[in-house]
Amino acid sequence: MILNFYKVYTTIINYNNKNMENQETENQLNIELSEEIAEGIYSNLAIITHSPTEFVVDFIKVMPGTPKAKVKSRIVLTPQHAKRLMKALGDNLQRFEQMNGKIKDSEMNAMPLNFGGPTAQA
Which of 20, 40, 81, 107 has the most CB atoms at less than 10 Å from its CB? Predict the structure, then answer.
């Protein structure tokens, strides 16, 4: 995996409640990233549901002209971890916008299945 061309900003969401200054003295955690997982999965739709004990985030890839889409990845989180993820994502978005300008937020009332273009025909 080559990351030299990109400046990568990483936020680690700690799964415990210890203070950040205590993390330096903790045991290190080695994280393995396989080539398959490193490629990532493209998603242009996320559906979030929750129960009293967990949050479920389904990542979906919707293709133009296709009325059916499959869940490509599902992440299950505790409510506490979901809140930490929301904060970390917000922090990263803020840093991104400071460096690159505001992200245009286009509110959509409904998910367009044709993506605004002509419907493909076989």
Answer: 81
Distance CA 89, CA 111 (A): 23
Give the domain range for residue 64.
Answer: 42-100
pTM above 0.70, yes or no: no
CA distances in angstroms from 82 to 49, 59, 77, listed in the order given: 11, 15, 6
The CA radius of gyration of the chain, in Å to the nearest whole number, is 18
Sorting pLDDT into bands at 50, 70 and 90, what band is 25? very low
The tally of domains found in the chain comes to 1
Is residue 74 situated within a structural domain? yes
Strands ordered across the beta sheet of 55-60: 45-50, 55-60, 71-77
Look at residue 58 and tell me whether its pLDDT is greater than 80. yes
